[in-house]
Amino acid sequence: MADRNVEESAELLDRARQGDEGAFSELVRHHQHEVFTLALRLLGNYELAADAAQETFIRAWRALPRFRGDSALSTWLHRITVNTSWTLGRRAQRHRASTLDEALFMDDSSAPSPESSAEAADLGGRLRTAVSELPDPQRAVVVLKDIYGWSHAEVAKALDISVTAAKVRLHRARQKLKEKLWREME
Predict the structure, then answer these.
(1) Element (H or E) spanning 86, and its range?
(2) With 0-12 CB in 10 A as exposed, 13-18 as middle and 19+ as buried, what is 161?
(3) Would 106 disulfide with which of 10, 11, 67, 124, CB 3.0-4.6 Å?
(4) Contact, 27 vs 73, CB < 8 A?
(5) 94 and 122 share a domain?
(6) pLDDT tens-place string over residues 95-122
(7) Which DSSP string corresponds to 128-166?
(8) Mean per-residue pLDDT for 65-90?
(9) Is the pTM of this model over 0.70?
(10) How many CB atoms lie within 10 A of CB 160?
């Protein structure tokens, strides 16, 4: 069954590369949730994430003939999503301050008691704020590694950086988060 899905995806990709809009629409349908979710986690704003997801697929359609297939289509789309999100995020920051959605990283409804729910909500809010204040390159690494659970190699490939650079960015981002949250607790 998995082999069949891979073959169907490869066929859709080949048809889309040749200009078949129907095949590309099917690829969009397969990947739209993951693209939107990544954009939302990077931007923290539903409307901006929707714009970023749409722009990602527009850019992907235009660049599809040049897609060599050196990486998985999803990895390529993630890279476009990260770049598009950064661009739209910087543009939006010039016009207004943005904040992360309160429900972005944590589901407080699963907390076993009101006290732990309040503590989790407080920590989640402080963490979301701290993540939103990271520079874009560090925020992207934190989201891809710590939220999506990608390996350092996958993060590096998606961001077009070395594995060492991905590790360094992650380390520095975690240090900044730790320092910020520690200062707030004192």
Answers:
(1) helix 73-95
(2) middle
(3) 124
(4) yes
(5) no
(6) 554 344 444 444 444 445 566 556 656 6
(7) HHHHHTS-HHHHHHHIIIIIS---HHHHHHHHTS-HHHH
(8) 87
(9) no
(10) 10
